[in-house]
């Protein structure tokens, strides 16, 4: 990748332009949109939600009757031998007959202890929970994309800082060589300047590897839908106006993970209602239409029918009353109560974790803002100090060690500033993830 660095001197500080790259620029919004559409985790949760939606869609069936049709046609070919009480014997071979039977049966549960209503409501709650889980995964995926995207930006800013340091090191090499030629310098100064320059060249290569790996990871989050070669923005955009009370207020109704845990409580309560309904009688309406026909082509008993047909319908009601089933109902109800308590505990535990997460994230966010303000000021001081030291070194008014120290101070200042920006962005993203603000 070819880089071109432009240096402009303004006042007493160096201003370095961004390296020029012939690559397509990808904005964060584009990556987020692709992730919400292409990310495999989001797709999986959408698939789970579709499954729950299908169950809820057809749950109306618990209120409908069950209708079954049965039919059969049987051909018989048999040999018969009979001996009557008066010792008369009758025998015949190849006796043929055929039977035709058909029936349509209907069973309609009119009352089952209100279990059918609880089942329908439980499936509806599961569908809503599926939608919440999709949104929760979308929030987590957006947070992952934002953090990864700005990590690329962070590493490119680090690369830019290294390239800036290389320019100063190249100047140091030239000055040390010139001073050595005129007899005012020492060879170790020249050698150290070359060592520092080569170390920075190595750092550039390492930094380019890190950037490419991070870009590939980001591309993987969107199912490799980004261009093979692309660039990102050069700025980490940070919202410095977030307030803890705004994030924490009503978070139990904005955090999708918490809402999903609450749905678990509702589902468990409805499952308990289903179990309780199993203790009550089941009242069914039943009806059937039956048809049967039997044809015998030959008989050996004069009282055997050659042709017999029956058809008609019936209807009625049945009641099933549970009396004793080995305490299965009692055990199931007790287990359902335990599940309700368990889901309540899990919800309260998750609520505490979210509350603590907000507090911790805001502490990180608030401290990162303070550090960022200090480092923004410090980078200007470090740049000015390096400029003054470099100019003094040219006039032999300062030592080689002082120049190298000033250069290292600027490198350290860049590292702290870039990290401060990134950590502030991470803290902001975590706060917005916790109250689902990333989807708004």
TrEMBL record:
Subcellular location: Cell outer membrane
Principal subcellular localization: membrane
SUPFAM superfamilies hit by this protein: Outer membrane efflux proteins (OEP)
Pfam families to which the protein is assigned, alphabetical: OEP (PF02321)
Name recorded for this polypeptide: TolC family protein
Signal peptide: none
Keywords of this entry: Cell outer membrane, Membrane, Transmembrane, Transmembrane beta strand, Transport
Family classification: Belongs to the outer membrane factor (OMF) (TC 1.B.17) family.
């Amino acid at each position: 990748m070819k880089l071109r660095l432009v240096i402009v001197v303004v006042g007493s500080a160096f201003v370095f332009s961004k390296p020029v790259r012939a690559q397509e620029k990808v904005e964060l919004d584009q990556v987020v949109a692709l992730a919400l559409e292409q990310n495999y985790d989001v797709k999986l949760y959408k698939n789970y939600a579709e499954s729950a939606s299908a169950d809820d869609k057809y749950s109306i069936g618990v209120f409908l009757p069950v209708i079954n049709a049965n039919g059969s046609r049987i051909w018989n070919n048999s040999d018969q031998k009979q001996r009557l009480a008066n010792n008369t014997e009758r025998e015949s071979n190849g006796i043929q007959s055929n039977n035709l039977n058909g029936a349509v049966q209907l069973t309609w549960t009119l009352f089952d202890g209100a279990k059918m209503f609880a089942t329908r409501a439980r499936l509806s709650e599961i569908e809503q929970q599926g939608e919440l889980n999709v949104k929760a995964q979308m929030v987590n995926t957006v947070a992952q994309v934002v953090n990864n995207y700005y990590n690329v930006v962070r590493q490119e800013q680090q690369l830019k800082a290294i390239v800036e340091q290389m320019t100063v090191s190249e100047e140091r090499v030239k000055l040390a060589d010139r001073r050595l030629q005129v007899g005012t310098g020492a060879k170790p100064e020249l050698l150290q300047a070359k060592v520092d320059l080569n170390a920075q060249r190595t750092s550039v290569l390492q930094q380019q590897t890190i950037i490419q790996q991070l870009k590939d990871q980001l591309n993987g989050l969107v199912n490799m839908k980004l261009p093979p070669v692309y660039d990102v923005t050069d700025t980490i955009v940070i919202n410095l106006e977030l307030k803890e009370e705004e994030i924490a207020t009503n978070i139990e109704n904005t955090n999708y993970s918490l809402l999903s845990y609450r749905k678990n409580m509702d589902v468990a309560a409805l499952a308990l209602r289903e179990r309780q309904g199993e203790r009550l009688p089941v009242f069914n309406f039943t009806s059937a239409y039956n048809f049967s026909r039997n044809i015998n082509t030959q008989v050996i008993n004069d009282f055997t029918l050659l042709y017999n047909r029956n058809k008609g319908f019936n209807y009625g009601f049945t009641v099933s009353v549970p009396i004793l089933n080995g305490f299965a109902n009692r055990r199931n109800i007790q287990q359902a109560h335990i599940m309700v308590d368990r889901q309540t505990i899990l919800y309260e535990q998750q609520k505490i974790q979210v509350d603590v997460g907000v507090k911790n994230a805001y502490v990180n966010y608030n401290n990162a803002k303070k550090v960022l303000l200090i480092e923004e000021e410090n980078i200007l001081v470090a740049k000015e100090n390096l400029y003054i030291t470099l100019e003094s070194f040219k006039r032999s008014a300062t030592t080689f060690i002082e120049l190298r120290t000033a250069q290292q101070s600027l490198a350290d200042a860049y590292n702290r500033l870039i990290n401060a920006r990134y950590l502030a962005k991470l803290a902001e993203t975590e706060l917005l993830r916790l109250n689902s603000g990333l989807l708004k």
